Amino acid sequence: MAQATSPPEVVKEDERTRRGYSSDAAGLGNLRAGAFVAPALLLIAAFLVFPALWVLYLGLTNYRLTGAAAAEPQFVGLANLLDAVSNPTFWNSTWLTLQFVLGSAVIGQVVLGFSIAWMLRDRAGPLKRLVEGLVILAWILPSAVVSFLWVALLDRDGGTLNALLGIPGFPWLLDHPMLSIIVFNTWRGTAFSMMLYGAALGNVPPSHLESARLAGASGWQQLRDVVFPHIRGHILTNLLLISLWTFNDFSPFLITAGGPDGRSEVLAVHVYKVALQSGELGYGAAVSTIILLINLVVAVFYLRLLRSKK
Amino acid sequence: MTRFVLGRIGFSTLIAVLLAFFTIPLLWLVTAPFTSDPSYEVKVPDFTWDNFQAVVEHPYALPSLYNSLILSVGTAVLVVLLAALAAYALSRVRLPGRDALLYALLLLSSIITGTAAMVPLFQLAVELNLIDSQLGLILILTGGLLPAAIFMLKDFMDSTPKSYEESARVFGASPLQIVRHVVVPVVRPGLATIAVWSLANVWGNFLMPYLLLSDVEKQPAAVITYTLYTEGGQANLSMLSTFGLLYSIPVVLMYLFVSKKYGFRFHGGIKR
Predict the structure, then answer these.
(1) Mean of the pLDDT values across residues A19-32?
(2) Is B222 in the A-facing interface, judged by CB distances under 8 Å?
(3) What is the mean predicted confidence (pLDDT) over B112-129?
(4) How many angstroms separate the first and last alpha carbons of chain A?
């Protein structure tokens, strides 16, 4: 499930309140503050930071799940990374991941989420509650359940989709595996964007929209000149978070298992397959390292954009 | 006038398409459990209770829901407690390197929680003797959720007025007393958000319990779902659909409760 978080606080705090008495209102002092933070940091260090560093190390070894290299892994330096970038399967997975992120997160979830929020912005009552409730339901149901629902929906013989379209026997998961998981992930994740834009649109001053309307601006012009400038920060935050989540999402595995023939093997699935199914832990960790780097680049890119206009 | 009519028609069509898109995948979950011998096809159910009978008789199905409850509640309590203390201290005292630390951890947590960390977490759990320990799993899950929780809560704490704390301090309250009696009541909606978010997160988590709990009596519902096969190796659809429904109901109830009580939307947490 998704996490709701905010972008870095870019605005500099007022120097005076930072040092002054009022910022430490409860009289905590650095020592007690440290004691308050310590238990959380301890758990984070043990179960988040350490595994991350360990992945970096593993990527430099030939560690395997079984066999001789499992007992005494050798240090192989950058060999795994070089293997990965010369491996067509890796590039195929990277390309599929790009399609997955652009298709289901950037286009699917953002456009659909914003459209729903925009259509329902001035409404109240049962219709709004029904639409929002259903969208949120898709988001909060456990992924084990949801993936079975989509396997049932897309099943070639008894599936509801084929029954509705009148094309029994059409194998969606075999013929269009990427399209299937892109639409699935759009369905699954739209709620987050919808709620975020719903909250953002509430912050657009109605008077600005009213003046634009009176000046004769069309619907699209109102969006472009009044709404988007106001919610620019929200859009970028939203894009950053859902891009990262989609990039690292494992649920395509539960629907297509990366197949057929690796045609829906996004990077998260690729890592699982090489590391745990083939047992090449070192190589898998190297691919994880590359994923970490790509994520970092994406995050820095968005944060730059966010900062640029502040 | 025609423009208005066209607009209404367009709006209604769009809403209808949306409703269909979000409803159709759910149909199977509400029909199959009440159908005898269901297939992947959505049929009008014949309202049998046999499938529920079978789930109740399954030795691990209902206990696994209880395991899911222990894991989610345990993690949520720990996340709320530790995140609240940390977020409060970080919001009120400027420790050196605070912001850089927070963003680094947040980025890390959104990346490392999935497949990338599987191998090291497994090795770590073996070394620390935490395999097959629900407490160990709770600690690991808590570690993964804490950065984002601290981040969200710090936003709440930043936007609460400090004057209450100052007055409490003038009257001689200790910092822990101030946190308990002044800060917690003020940020209660934030704490509720974090609690619900952690509960839902752990309730649906498949990968970590699958990796770290091999004892079938300790496994949560997410893992048990994938063991529901017939003797022929086919997915046991009557069990799967019925168990899936039972497994989903608590999340739906929680959503209804939260949206009734607080309105299910972002309080703070997200800002420009």
Answers:
(1) 62
(2) yes
(3) 77
(4) 31
pLDDT higher than 60, residue A294: yes
Name the pTM for this structure.
0.83
Which residues sit opposite B44 in a β-bridge? none
Q: Is residue B234 a contact partner of residue B37, using CB atoms and an 8 Å limit? A: no
- Locate B251 and state its tokens: 């999340």
Residue B199's contacts (CB-CB under 8 Å, 6 or more residues apart) are B72, B73, B75, B76, B254
* H or E element, residue B215: none
Q: Can you read off the two tokens belonging to residue B175?
A: 């910092």
CA distance B163 to chain A (A): 7
Q: Domain check: are B15 and B59 in the same one? A: no
Mean pLDDT of B78-87: 92
Residue span of the structural domain in which B31 resides? 2-48
Give the whole-angstrom CA distance, residue A19 versus residue B123: 44
Number of residues that make up chain B? 272
Query: Which residue in the block uniquely carries the two structure tokens 């009440």?
Result: B34
How many structural domains is chain B composed of? 2
Of B33, B48, B63, the position where a domain reaches its end is B48
User: What does the pLDDT read at residue A1?
Assistant: 39
Share of residues in chain A with pLDDT > 70 (%): 89
| Interchain pair B165, A26: CB under 8 A | yes
Which of chain B's residues have a Cβ under 8 Å away from the Cβ of A299? 107
Q: Report CB contact under 8 Å: B93, A28.
A: yes
The C-alpha of B83 sits at a distance from chain A's nearest C-alpha, in angstroms, of 7
> Is A269 inside a domain boundary?
yes
For residue B267, is pLDDT > 50? no
Q: Indicate whether B41 and B57 sit together in one domain.
A: no
- What dihedral angle (degrees, nearest 10) is formed by the CA atoms of B247, A130, A146, A273? -130
- Pair B120, B83 in one domain: yes
DSSP structure class, residue A66: S
CB-based contact A25 B92, cutoff 8 Å: yes
Q: Taking every pair of C-alpha atoms in chain A, what is the biggest distance, in angstroms?
A: 76
Residues of B in contact with A4 (CB under 8 A): 148, 152, 193, 197, 266, 269-270
In eight-state DSSP terms, residue A122 is: T
Helix B98-112 with A232-247: angle, nearest 10 deg? 50
Q: Which of A64, A66, A83, A84 is nearest to A74 (CA)?
A: A64
Chain A contact for B157 (CB, 8 A cutoff): no
| Element containing residue B214 per DSSP (H, E) | none
Chain B closest-CA separation from residue A242 CA (Å):
10
B216 in the same domain as B104: yes
Task: Among A1, A9, A271, select the one facing B200 at the smallest CB separation.
Answer: A1
Residue in A204, A189, A207 with CA at minimum distance from that of residue A100: A189
B237 to chain A, closest Cα gap in Å: 10
Residue A36 has its nearest CB partner, among B89, B165, B270, at B89
Residues B189-236 pLDDT 10s: 788 888 888 998 899 888 889 888 988 889 999 888 888 776 666 778
